[in-house]
Amino acid sequence: MTESVLVAMPVHDAWLARVRERLPGGVVDCREPIRPGQRLPVAEIGERTVLFADHVPANAEDMPALRWIQLGSAGYQQLAGRQLAAGVRVTNASGVNDVPIAEWCVLMMLALARRLPDSLRDQAERRWDRDVSYQSELRGRRVGIFGYGSIGREVARLCRALGLEVWAVARSGVEPRPHRYHPDDSLEEVRPDRGFAPAQLDAFLRGLDVLAITSPLTPRTRGVFGARELALLPRHAVLLNPARAHVVDESALLAALRDGTLAGAALDSHYREPMPPDDPFWTAPNTIVTPHVSGSTGSTHFADRVWDLFARNLDRYRTGAPLLNEIDPADWRH
């Protein structure tokens, strides 16, 4: 079968040439990224068998030949409820931004532990303060990772190197997972010191110094951390959220930061983006806010890695080998 590929991602010329070499006789066309809700001319999409994009067209029902979508994002909530041709396979970009997101988590753990925001204010005000609270260590603390997918495993790798104990909650378990993308296949996977099922969330939370949320936003995870769950954390614990804001209930998080139930937070994904000037999280106590930059299309190696993933999967798709990062249809259809 002659493949007809539509690329709706920023073009990487060197990788585009390699993709075309992999499809002798096939068609590979490029267009601007598809905007959420955008409809495309039927003549442009009608015979496409492969789509490489962040979003599918609003008139996806006009793509009866479509067989595989390679997303340019790790999240896939943009496909929820979409009407796609029967048998369409979907793979996400999990693994592409794991390294910068994991590094963001380590940066935020260090910044909160060593009171970096306060140190910077001291510097700006020319105040010399050697309080012992500025001198604490991370080594020996316990970080709990909610969502032990590709990002969570990379966070665990860096945490283990820093001497932290790692706990993890995973719906699918913490065993090594086959057919997942990682830019460095030579690295061995890290096992957490202790794994928990979602039903054991209470016991997981009670033992943590740091809670790192690295799960996707799904109907199962939306609002999973409410006032009750946050109150289970020790009062010295901090929360890191580079994933999706709505995994944590907004009112509960704000209240926990204001009343000291949580000692602090670092937030990269927000309830309103861009955050308006009056957003309450700008001034939440002991909270570091970053503008959704922990891992993005602007990350140092994003373009190389996402095109590398697409090229690897294209080879697998053509030979019938298992695709990397394939998503269970039950997860993206609802």
Give an account of the 3D structure.
The chain has 334 residues and is of the alpha/beta class. Helix content is 28%, strand content 14%. It has two domains: 127 residues, NAD(P)-binding Rossmann-like Domain (Rossmann fold, 3-Layer(aba) Sandwich), CATH 3.40.50; 192 residues, Rossmann fold (3-Layer(aba) Sandwich), CATH 3.40.50. The relative contact order is 0.14. The strands form two sheets. The protein has a seven-stranded parallel beta sheet with strand order 8-7-6-9-10-11-12. A five-stranded parallel beta sheet has the order 2-1-3-4-5, with helices on one face. The chain has ten helices and twelve strands. It is elongated, with a radius of gyration of 21 Å. α1 links the parallel β1 and β2.
Helix/strand order: EHEHEEEHHEHEEHEHEHEEHH
Report the CATH topology name of the largest domain.
Answer: Rossmann fold
Helix content: 25-40%
How many structural domains can be distinguished in the coordinates?
2
Unreliable stretches:
none
Rounded to the nearest angstrom, the distance between the terminal CA atoms is 31 Å
Enumerate how many helices there are, as a single number.
10
Radius of gyration: 21 Å
User: Sheet bearing the most strands, described?
Assistant: 7 strands, parallel
> CATH H-level name of the largest domain... which superfamily?
NAD(P)-binding Rossmann-like Domain
Q: Mean of residue pLDDT? A: 95
Strand content: 5-15%
Pfam family, one: 2-Hacid_dh_C
Organism: Jiangella asiatica
GO molecular function: NAD binding; oxidoreductase activity
Protein name: D-2-hydroxyacid dehydrogenase
